[in-house]
Design a protein that fits this description.
Pfam families: Cupin_6, HTH_18. With 328 residues, this protein is an alpha+beta fold. 44% of the residues lie in helices and 17% in strands. It has twelve helices and ten strands. Strand 4 and strand 5 form a beta hairpin. It starts with a helix and ends with a helix.
Length: 328
């Protein structure tokens, strides 16, 4: 288990909206869902991603752009296109609307992907699950682009082959391919010489800090001290403390406390029957009062208040989603 594994586990393509759309200019797809993270890849042709309040980004064949929500964005043949926008969401769009259909897992396009002068766009909208995945999203810019690269090439080939058929189990296959594609895209972007990778990404490759991070993420509930971490990493206590703070900008136990509270925040929502004392023990606190004090110090509210607010927010979201579904 490493930091990237932990942060990525809440961002999954399970049941996500997958779109395979073949278009002929002029075209304008308006992505209105505001998904936390949307991956857009052009298999052939080209187009422009136009985010709200951001400059347009040209997307050529076998290039990928990630758009972080909740702002909407459009995909157009040319900036200022004369095409009428088609609103794209979970029920986008009927075949008669420009000859395209977005479905869960497969496509039924009125325009043949083999025809000349067409653009084929693959999209995957990722749902966001909890505080853990929010840490990953917070490390990303609103628009992140990755050109065609050797690591993502095989995934694109598999995706192109899968969307060309309609077979049982296709949603599961596409979910896994989207996860693979997202990991490849993020790796390539974080590893760019001119990239702006978060501190924890580079820290994983540090021989001292990387080992300490691995231990903290593998056993977050263990009674860690700086001395114990240093012994495991094979360095002195002072060396670990200084190296960790230099690389990550905070001491090891401060990082651990923040990570424990992130885990606890998700557990409070995911396990509504669990008591605060049970959640406290799960993340390494034997005393629920000490846990509650630490949670409030870091999160600004106590665990019970956080659970009530998060549950109410989730219920409101479900109600709005249900209302929207009934109107289509």
């Amino acid at each position: 288990m490493d930091a990237f594994d932990d942060l990525f586990r809440g961002v999954r393509a399970h049941g996500s909206l997958f779109g395979s759309t073949t278009l002929r200019a002029p075209f304008s797809l308006d992505f209105v869902d505001g998904a936390p993270l949307t991956m857009c890849t052009v298999l052939r042709g080209s187009g422009w991603i136009v985010p709200e309040n951001r400059p347009p980004e040209l997307l050529r064949s076998r290039e990928t752009i990630l758009v972080r929500g909740p702002a909407r964005f459009t995909f157009v043949d040319e900036v200022g296109t004369r095409a009428e926008p088609i609103a794209c969401g979970v029920d986008c769009a009927d075949p008669e609307q420009g000859g395209t259909r977005h479905r869960f897992g497969w496509n039924d396009c009125g325009v043949s992907a083999d025809e000349a002068d067409t653009t084929t766009l693959i999209t995957g909208a990722y749902p966001l699950r909890g505080e853990i995945s929010q840490r990953l999203l917070d490390a990303l810019p609103v628009v992140l682009r990755v050109d065609d690269g050797p690591e993502c090439d095989p995934v694109l080939d598999h995706i192109a082959a899968e969307v060309a058929i309609d077979a049982p189990g296709q949603q599961v296959v596409l979910d896994r391919l989207l996860d693979w594609m997202l990991v490849c895209t993020l790796r390539e972007w974080f590893d760019r010489p001119d990239g702006e990778a978060p501190a924890w990404w580079a820290a994983q490759r540090d021989p001292v800090v990387g080992e300490a991070l691995r231990l903290l993420h593998a056993q977050p509930a263990a009674p860690w001290t700086v001395a114990a971490l240093a012994r495991q990493a094979g360095v002195s206590r002072s060396t670990l403390a200084k190296r960790f703070a230099d690389v990550l900008g905070e001491p090891p136990l401060t990082y651990l406390a923040g990570w424990r509270m992130t885990l606890a925040a998700d557990l409070l929502v995911e396990q509504p029957a669990a008591t605060v004392a049970e959640i406290a023990r799960t993340v390494g606190y034997s005393d629920p009062f000490g846990f509650s004090a630490a949670f409030k110090r870091i999160r600004g509210v106590n665990p019970s208040e956080f659970r009530r607010a998060a549950t109410a927010t989730a219920a409101t979201g479900f109600a709005l989603a249900g209302s929207a579904a009934r109107t289509v």
